[in-house]
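Worked problem 6 (solution included).
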Amino acid sequence: MGHKIAIIIPAYKSRFLRQTLDSMAAQTCRDFAVYVGDDASPEPLEPIVRAYEGKLSITYHRFAENLGGRDLVAHWERCIALSREPLVWLFSDDDLLPPDGVERVLAAAGRYGTEKVFFRLPLIVVDAEGQQKLANPPLPEGKTSDYAFLLDKLNGRISSAAIEYVFSRDVWRVSGGFVKFPLAWCSDDATWARFARYAGGMTSVPGAPVCWRNAEGENISNSSRFDREKLCATTQFIRWIARTYKCRKGDSALAGALGRYAHTILRCSVRGNYGLSDLLRLCAALSKISPSAASYVCLRHLFHIKRL
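Solution. The predicted structure is:
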């Protein structure tokens, strides 16, 4: 009988990969398989992975073409396609699991099944040394709707990372897979909302948190090289929200959340590194949901534009 969980690692960096695999080798339950999809990395990933062949049910596949550099979502999708287990757990090559992580997910699957389910674990963010930088609030009991999740994310009440979600294969397949934006910026948040809609919400799996690593110089969140692409993706994300939640047009909660979200992206994520056309495109997207939020963002940031 096959495993129930496929842990998918779309890998490119070697720096923390051993720590990630160590956290998997330390699991109290071994009913899972690990798939490492090497995105034609110039770093020596294969020797690291091969060292775990006696410790884990692990499959290594090196792709001939680097896809993540131009279409990260497509790389995620092809890595998932390597597997066949009913539950999918998507990792980065530097994330960390608590020792009972798999055991708790399987307990939830025993209660709710392995079809049309979307599980969510507590999350903390750690730095390069594994020291905690921030933690999400405790998970609500039961289920969280896609809309409640979206409002929490837009309002900055939570961080979100792939490692905290486990989804059934049918959710991934039938819902249409991952939402694509440039650099996969905002793709994860749109995707989790999409998956939650199909699954009827996110089911909480309380207990010790999973760790998402945000190391300086290792994540595009900390880089200014891609600010234009990030802003383009943010604009596309807002357009996606306008299409997906058109029934929420005029909802003051969504309008306020989007205004705060756009303000945070402009001030903190791209740090004012944008032009007039970038700002106007963003505000045009906002106006499809809330003209007042668009006006607020435009007026607040119009005089901070850089000449690009």
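Discussion: The chain is about 40% helix and 15% strand.
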